[in-house]
Amino acid sequence: MQKQNAGGRPAHRKKFWSRDDSELTLLSLPTFIWYLLFAYLPMFGVIIAFKDFRIKGNFIQSVFKSRWVGLSNFKYLFASKDTATMLRNTLGYNIVFIFLGIAISVALAVMVNQLHSKRMGKVYQTAMFMPYFLSWIVVSVCVWAFLSYDKGIINSYLTGAGGQPVNWYMEAKYWPGLLIFINIWKGLGYGMVVYLATITGIDPSYYEAAVMDGATKWQQTRYITLPMMKTVIVIMFILSVGGIFYSNFGLFYQVPHDSNSLFNVTYTIDVMVYKSLKSSTVGMASASALFQSAMGCLTILAANAVVRRVDPDNAMI
Amino acid sequence: MKKTVYQTGLEKFNRVRSSTNILYNLFFILLSLICVIPILLVLAISLTPEETISTVGYQLFPQAVSFNSYLFLWRQHTVLFRALGVSLFVTIVGTALGVLLTTSMGYVLSRPQYRLKNFLTWVVFIPMVFNGGMVSSYFVNTALLGLKNSIWALILPLLVSSFNVIVCKTFFRSTIPDEIVESAKIDGASQLTIYFRIVLPISLPVLATIALFLCFGYWNDWFQSMLYIDNAQLNSLQALLTQIMNNVDYLSKNASTLGISAVQIARDLPMEGSRMAIAVIIVLPIACAYPFFQKYFISGLTIGAVKG
Question: What does pTM read for this prediction?
Answer without folding.
Answer: 0.87
